Amino acid sequence: MLELSRLSCLGEALRDAVLTYKTNVALIEVDRHREQARFTYSELRKEAERFASALQAHDFVAGDRLAILMSNQSKWLIGALGALWSGATLVPLDYKLTPKEQLSLIAHAKPKVLLIEYGTLRPLLKEDVSALEKVRVIVTEAPAKADIGSAIRWESLSGGKFTLTHRAQDDVACIVYSSGTSGDPKGCMLTHANYMAQAEVLGRMYPMAEDEKFFSILPTNHAIDFMLGFLMPLMFGGGIVHQRTLRPEFLLPTMHAYEVTHIALVPRMLKALQKKLEEQLDEREPWARTAVERLASLNELATARKPNHFVSSKLLAPVHKKFGGRLKLIVAGGAFVERGVAEFFYRMGFPIAIGYGLTEAGTVISVNDLKPFRADTVGAPIPGTELEIRGATDEGVGEVWVRGPTVFKGYLEAPELTRDALVDGWLKTGDLGTLDAAGHLKLLGRAKNMIVTSGGKNVYPEDIESAFADVDGVEEYCVFAQSYLQPGKLADDQLVIVVRLKDDADSAQVFEDLRRQNLTLSEYKRVGALLAYAPEFPRTASQKIKREPLARALAAATLALKPL
Known about the structure:
9-stranded mixed sheet; single chain
């Protein structure tokens, strides 16, 4: 049980943890099948203190900003921990952005120090690096003879005496850039109090044992992994596993080798994992498939009120062994989770905590507490968080507004945006939803994405998209109003589905399957045309499609619509 309200800052909370769990394994770093690094809490403390003392030796003071631009690995967490102990405000950046986008965020955030991988620094140095003129750059994993300009090598860092720097609860702990689906990044200022309130609530709902391990898959700069793959495991004395390659063939072996107990995945990953498991089951003899299905049904009955890992792992032992035998919780968020996907995993004994959150309100606003499991909503508001549906229609659909201790302080250097987002302490999320009788939230989509048909009906693209989830041969897809893609050209609007096919797909069969699925929708929801598009869709760190950039790319491509 986490009791963080008595503490002033994240640095203090994490300091308590490393001193308490000295001999526990804190970090494990793997590259393919080879373990690259392992740190106990005591070793983690020493490495983080070395980094913090090096910062302090170079006049780094409380409130200075330190940006991190790295993939998931142990040095990300060591650097973040040392920075928090030195009083820094962290600026986690997305290493998957283009160099120009990364430099734009650095120019906006104005960090004093940038911690970066050599592989990410190299393309950055080919651009206009004026944004780095006043930034002290620390680079990891640079080859001995590599030209790194004025950057400092991680290995050569040295400092003097380390002094733990405390911050106040209302001080900004992190500036997190959230592009959402619009492609316009905004720096969300989250305080130490925001993070500690979130960690305390989630720690009560989903406690972690000292011998349990979290597999960090999502980028650590993302709100979900920052909380669940960094802060919370360390606060509980658990372990964190990083796999340097995210190629699918290495993920399950890593989970098996290190007996992973917790993981956070975006819905797209869950869907791919479900397909892989179903393919493996289909390869079995008919009697074996029948046996698994019956055991899954029995497990569903046995865990109807709440998950029971012991029962599930015994009933479905062969399936659980593929994941290491100890996987007890999957956290899903960042985008819509298909009901069928969540129910599939629960039947197999892998409970999925489906949640809803925004960077502006910490990691989680609402979540299913699994008592009992429900796959049709994003759960009830977490304790301490108020949620209201404002401007509701007769059907109860309105904008989700949120108030509570996890709501952010505002956007960096953007007072007008902050005033638009925060009204009397309430955060206007921009999401549309309804509340059911049990107080659970069901999301329908973004308010700005809502389509009003020519017949006056409100249609939500995310709702329509779920109807096409099981069509084989489709890599990714997105629904728009045609007037959004071709403004000013139509008197009578229609819906368009944009589809990227898999490389080996039979396009004629896929289009026929899409037509068949389309007919299952209510008439006013049916898609009128199809647009085939070959390039990958632009996505956020949590794998949500960026609709505006995609629409701009489609308009520039001038592709022909095909009636559906």
